[in-house]
Amino acid sequence: AQSVAQPEDQVNVAEGNPLTVKCTYSVSGNPYLFWYVQYPNRGLQFLLKYITGDNLVKGSYGFEAEFNKSQTSFHLKKPSALVSDSALYFCAVEGTGAGSYQLTFGKGTKLSVIP
Amino acid sequence: EAQVTQNPRYLITVTGKKLTVTCSQNMNHEYMSWYRQDPGLGLRQIYYSMNVEVTDKGDVPEGYKVSRKEKRNFPLILESPSPNQTSLYFCASSSGQEAYEQYFGPGTRLTVT
């Protein structure tokens, strides 16, 4: 069975500092990896995805993520955090093995950017 | 505007009273899905549909039903709701199954007393 781990329930970072939200995964076959963001009282919004190719993926709002196959990780990063980045972030994986095409989400990481 | 809509947004009901949460998308997407979000558990998939009249169970299908009679609509049915179905529910759609990003509705907060 595929799974996603987001080891930090909450990440606090000062405005202007770089931020990292961690994600590791377990899946059969090559993974498709996603990051979504949820603002208060809103549905999830797609940020970026990794399918194949360049390990560094760029997405919306200045976010990027690095795929590391050997460490089975897909950490979300941003060089300079904004207060408006404060939200709940979800990592998700879709396996490409048998019985796949199902998206499995992590438990989420709450990001707080402190002014 | 491309969107996924859900109704109602908030619902308080009693145990055993059948209810339906509607979901509609205007993007002509083939793939639709229902999730529930619970604190500390993230999002868990309830059911998904790959196209009209094609549905399949997700990770937590017990106590739920779905139907897909039209491409744009994917209602979630709770025939006999119980308090453990109190949750925040999201509908989502995408152009396809494999490696496509999903578009989420605004959510339905359901309370079963």
Account of the 3D structure:
- The complex is a heterodimer of chains A (115) and B (113).
- Chain A is mostly beta strands and 115 residues long.
- Chain A is built from no helices and twelve strands.
- The radius of gyration of chain A is 14 Å and the shape is globular.
- Chain A has strands spanning 3-5, 10-14, 19-21, 24-26, 32-38, 44-50, 56-58, 64-68, 73-78, 87-94, 103-105, 109-114.
- In chain A, strands 2, 5, 6, 10, 11 and 12 form a six-stranded mixed sheet that branches. In chain A, strands 3-9-8-7 form a four-stranded antiparallel sheet, with no helix packed on it. A two-stranded antiparallel ribbon of chain A has the order 1-4.
- Helix content of chain A is 0%, strand content 51%.
- The mean pLDDT of chain A is 92.
- Chain B has strands at 4-7, 10-13, 19-25, 31-38, 42-51, 54-57, 65-66, 76-78, 87-94, 103-104, 108-112.
- By secondary structure, chain B is mostly beta strands.
- The termini of chain B are far apart.
- In chain B, strands 2, 4, 5, 6, 9, 10 and 11 form a seven-stranded mixed sheet that branches.
- The chains are: A mainly beta (115), B mainly beta (113).
Please give the structural blueprint.
The complex is a heterodimer of chains A (about 120) and B (about 110).
Chain A: E1 3-5, E2 10-14, E3 19-21, E4 24-26, E5 32-38, E6 44-50, E7 56-58, E8 64-68, E9 73-78, E10 87-94, E11 103-105, E12 109-114
Parallel strand pairs in A: 2-12
Antiparallel strand pairs in A: 1-4, 3-9, 5-6, 5-10, 7-8, 8-9, 10-11, 10-12
Chain B: E1 4-7, E2 10-13, E3 19-25, E4 31-38, E5 42-51, E6 54-57, E7 65-66, E8 76-78, E9 87-94, E10 103-104, E11 108-112
Parallel strand pairs in B: 2-11
Antiparallel strand pairs in B: 1-3, 3-8, 4-5, 4-9, 5-6, 7-8, 9-10, 9-11
